[in-house]
Every structure is written in structure tokens, then in C-alpha cells.
């Protein structure tokens, strides 16, 4: 299951997984998706390695921006992944 995190001004939706264990390492997958004329651009990155699992349609410049975004937000993504997503009142 993916949990909503934020929607950027260009309509890119950022979602994240719950915390998963992989050989004793806590993994969170972060998914980026933006609607375009003929479908969606989408990409997924795995934390804490910051390794991209796939990228379909985002430019290198956009991926660089997402990398920086992830480095600034990883601590929050882990916190919300542990809680089962952001819970707003």
C-alpha cells in the first residue's frame, strides 16, 4: 500500500510505502507520478539507498530535483511510513 505524502505545484503526486525490512535494513519506497496528455510520468526510489527502481518520463533535471527533495524529506517519510501515513485531524 502507498500512502499520500504531498502534491507538488506541477501536479506530481508523491506517495510512500510502509517500512519494509530487507536483510535488517528498513526500506521505504517513494513513488512520484504526474499526469501528462497520454497517461503518466512515474518513477520510484528506494530509501535509504536512494536507488531509482524505474523512471518513465521524468527528465534528468526532474530526477535531480527529486533526489534533493528526498534527502531533505527522508526523515519525515520514515516517520510517516512507521505510522501508516500522515494522519490529519
Low-confidence stretches: none
Give the beta-strand count.
Answer: 6
Tell me about the largest β-sheet: 6 strands, antiparallel
What is the H-and-E element order? Answer: EEEEEEH
Per DSSP, what share of the residues sits in E-state strands of 2 or more residues? 35-45%
Number of helices: 1
The helix content is 25-40%
Summarize this entry quickly.
This protein has one helix and six strands, in the order E-E-E-E-E-E-H. The chain has one helix at about 60-85, and strands spanning about 5, 15, 20, 25-35, 40-45, 50-55.
Task: Describe this entry's structure for a reader.
Strand 4 and strand 5 (39-47) form a beta hairpin. The relative contact order is 0.20. The protein has 1 helix and 6 strands. The mean pLDDT is 94. Strands 1, 2, 3, 4, 5 and 6 form a 6-stranded antiparallel sheet that branches. The protein has 89 residues and is of the alpha+beta class. The protein has one helix spanning 60-83; strands at residues 3-7, 13-16, 20-22, 25-36, 39-47, 51-56.
